[in-house]
Amino acid sequence: MKLELKNLCKNFGHKKATNNFSVTLENGVYGLLGPNGAGKTTIMRQMTTLLKPDSGDIVLNGKSIFEDEEAYRAKIGYLPQDFGVYKSFKAKQFLKYIAALKGLSSKEANEKVDYLLKLVGLYDVRKKPVGKFSGGMRRRVGIAQALLNDPDILILDEPTAGLDPQERTRFRNLLSEISKDKIVVLSTHIISDIEAIAKETLIMKDGTLMLKGTHRDILEEMDGKVFLVNTVDENEAYEIQRKYKVVNIQRGVHSIELRVISDTIPKAQNVTSAQARFEDVYMFYFDIEDAKEV
């Protein structure tokens, strides 16, 4: 299976939400990474046909998805960032309702809904109103509804928002398992989720695709750009922050360690090279308002 996004452009007024965005996707998990306003949600909405590009095309196995949108929609599962529910519906009742909208028979819906409720850890509360669920539990209902029609293409916008670490681990394992024969596109601000399961990461900024590659490929791009600077002088620490992109400050009993990202070696004493982490990549390409202190 091959899904090709070809030169997608979408403007909202004078703002270019997507600007000649092109990428080819095959089976596996793809992480979509970028700051707010980068165009991630716009790309995903175009992939679901909820939003049409001003120009460009999306092609599945050689055929434009816009030629027969209904047939294409039957192949996709979608979890939007703002997922709404009927609060008075019980969990199982709500999923059966969505299953009916997706064209599943009553028998098929019963079996699929029970299976998915167990998969997302909500089977024991299947008779409770969704309106009484926590945000994380509602998110799991959203994940279940996206999987109801056994989609070939799964599009997930911030799917792990509100999930606790155990729930996120369960969800990542689920995606890894089902991505063997599906295209999964996962947009998230939680870098560890992408780092753990993505076959490739797509880094977006200002509606354009800046970088695409495996975890290893992208980290190799950061070779020689990450440094640790140790100092005991607050003034020197301030100067380093003023001159360089500091992504982390760790204060010890007798020293201050600053993690610096730079194209050149920082001009300071006690500088050592450091192994790049995936979060360093994000910080390198996007502005940081404040360094983290730990």
UniProtKB/TrEMBL annotation:
SUPFAM superfamilies: P-loop containing nucleoside triphosphate hydrolases. It comes from Clostridium oceanicum. It comes from the Bacteria. Residues 3-231 form the ABC transporter domain. This is ABC transporter ATP-binding protein. Belongs to the ABC transporter superfamily. Keywords: ATP-binding, Nucleotide-binding, Transport. The keyword ATP-binding applies. One of its GO terms (molecular function) is ATP binding. PROSITE patterns: ABC_TRANSPORTER_1, ABC_TRANSPORTER_2. Pfam families: ABC_tran.
